[in-house]
Amino acid sequence: MTGRPLVFLVPEGIDDPSRVSGGNVYDRRVRDGLGSRGWRVRTVETSDAAGATAALREVPRGETVLVDGLVALRAPEAFAEAAARVRTVVLAHMVAAAFPDAMALTVAAERQALRAADHIVVTSRWTAEELRRRGLADPERVTIAPPGVDVPAARSSPRTGQEPPRLDLLCVGVVAPHKGQDVLLAALDRLPGRGWTCRIVGSPRPFGAFASSVARDAQRFSGRVRLTGVLGGPELAVEYRRSALLVAPSRVESSGMAIAEARGHGVPVLAAAVGGIPDTVAGGGAILVPPDDPAALAAALDAWMMDPALRRRLRAEARAARAGLPAWTGTVAAVSDALERS
Description:
The chain is α/β, with parallel strands linked by helices. The chain has helices at residues 22-34, 49-57, 69-74, 76-83, 104-116, 125-133, 181-188, 208-218, 233-242, 257-264, 277-280, 294-306, 308-321, 328-341, and strands at residues 4-11, 39-46, 64-68, 87-92, 119-122, 142-144, 167-172, 196-201, 225-229, 245-248, 269-272, 286-289. The chain is globular.
């Protein structure tokens, strides 16, 4: 094989369909695209600190290693040690210190790894600013590479101006506290009966106790709320096409890949105004509410359900915004440029 060698350290199971997450999708698209930019990628999956340490120590001197931020956090000492003999780039999907319940050891590990890195790739302008604000990285060491969006062919989307006949809500993301599915259920509890349904799509595995709590709470809606688990690409595309609104009640969010995917399908968004979400919905087709506020979310949902003109306008804006969505080729190019500069 020809090309510049690159070791890419990622969490275990990024190709496992039962562990679908925005970070895994991003890692796969970068991994699969870097070959076209002249890189010979060797992907190493790690599941714990010992595996991450061993993988880092095996990278040949002078080579380049791209490390998913979760892996770097598991073995910050080994990462700092590797940075002395190889070129190191961290792919930071999120800022751990931005989580309100972040453990002190996690925050310290993040600081050690990011300060040792030659370069850092982030997925949003908000993340880059957060790193600067917290003193974790100078701007010249950071590259912003927003996730791309696969915009469906026009024939697979509703006709212009047409909207789904029912008030079908969709929430996509790993079932986890930072994604705020509990906030969504609390908001739905406040709504009068207006014929709505809601599907919550995402893996329950990483945060099992929280996911179990959400599943129990969903039972009180007598079938109007359904947790589907992980859905594959074609199945998820069907959900986007049948849905009238994506709801993203996140407490913390770097960019929001599900939000971008919804916009690719011309689906409007109701989301928390947190992290990188305002940048992701720039261009219209969205309503923003304060985070972790079920009352505000319920009020926005009720207003949307009661106003057909508002629904039509938001859908038209979301469809118009598709032309400006980033492509994965641009994401890969930005990551490649960062690797070359490191």
